[in-house]
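Lecture 7 notes. Example A: sequence first, then its structure tokens.
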Amino acid sequence: MTVSNRINPDAGVVTVGVLTGKLTRSELEAHPHHHILDSVADVPALLDKL
């Protein structure tokens, strides 16, 4: 279970999946996320966009 499974999408929280964990892109896409990143190295660029 990913963290996003436990967060209400209307709670005002931005959910991010990162592919450096154990789940594949297709497994992450099966759950609600606002963003799916290839690496934690992509987090700063995402934060700049938010």
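Example B, a different protein, same format:
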Amino acid sequence: MKSNIFLTLTLLIFPCITYAQKKSFHPAATISADSAKKSIVELLDELGKKHPGFYRYTDKASFNHYIDSSLATIQGPQDQLSFYHKLKPLIARIRCMHTGLSLSENYRNYLDKTANMLPLDLFFIGERAYITGNYSGNPDLSLGTEVLSINGKTTAEIKKIMFENISSDGFNETLKYQMINNRFAGSYRSIVEVNHQFKVVLASGSGKKDLILNAVRNEAIPVPEVMDLKNKPRLDLTYNEDAAILRIHSFGETDIKEGRQNFKKFIRKAFEELQNKQIKNLVIDLRNNTGGTDVNAAYLCSYLMNKPYRYWDRIEVTEPFALSIKGSAKMVYGKPIKKDSVYLWQKSRLSSEFDFFEPQQPQANPYQGKVYVLINGTCLSSCADLAAVLQYNKRATFIGEETGGAYQGNNSGLIPDTKVSFDINVNVPLLKYINAVDQTKNYGHGTYPDLPYARTINDILEKKDPEMEIALKTIREK
């Protein structure tokens, strides 16, 4: 039923641009410059009306100027990749991590059939990049070597291009670094260029060294270990002499079920165990937790708070979307209510997904000890909401780097897809979440760590865990 409701919502919201008649796939097919501009204008016009966070971080006049400047660069026929490259920075300018853009499935499959991936993993620190993975078969490429340029573009130029095209909440950059550091070759191919050979300039002593690298296929570049959940439990509780360590790799109900775990059952038993063992210090590792089911994140929060609290302040939607909730959609979600100049989303009739803007109560026996939370740029969505609420209520000490998800809240909830030219897919969040935190704090950024740490290239190569070391050292010294 959920997918049918999403289809209904999508047809109501994007009647002009959704589910266009599909044509046979040709990778070299083009559309005229006028058609490309029209497609972009139609999409952005609809998003401007119905995306609740479209102007959350960029005022309308500035956004319109940026759109006009971008459209002026479209001078001739556009194939799918060139059109995608025109649209992607416009989508990124919305500054919303949940507003995504992806090439058509056919085009992605087409790219994966040939060797067009740079055979390296790179780790960026500022504008400098270092090799952390070598899949070229060339033994002259030592891990830790600095890369100065690729195909004539300096690493500073490459980083700038990538950052302008990667969507993140507000002005956050830690997510963008995580995106390019976790699997650089994929980001490079989709954002910078598709090529079959790469001239790589390396730092060598006091000079430079040029190498020509042949591309590899997509499957030659492994999924980064930190993002691969296939062979690890999503939820894990361990102990050492200093503290209990609770690792939560995901709040997503589907992810957790795939790992053959039950979130509420695990958390309930974990905190009963912490109480029975009288554990005074708890380290919660939320790094690389991209979020998921709000119910699970809010449930964990209830074990960490020791007095009544607020989780979300409210959920807002745009007027056009509010007025589109009718028929079967109204039966499921309920009609948004107008208050002053905004429309407020209401609780769902069939689930508890939207319940957390009401006052919350802690569990009957919440955890009373000290809490230390490890965070990084891939703490997103519901994970970032949890971090913000815990920090606002002074319930934990945060260690690591700024969360990728925004402190004030995000745009997410219902996220139907729409298609534009070439069957390029756009993900459109329809709900604007306002966390129950100080809305003037950390504007356009995530939750900042109390004990910040920026990883070094040696940390990566030696597979160190400095954030965990800082947490345990802090506990020992208390």
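Note on Example B: Residues 1-8 have pLDDT under 50 and may be disordered. The chain has 16 helices and 22 strands.
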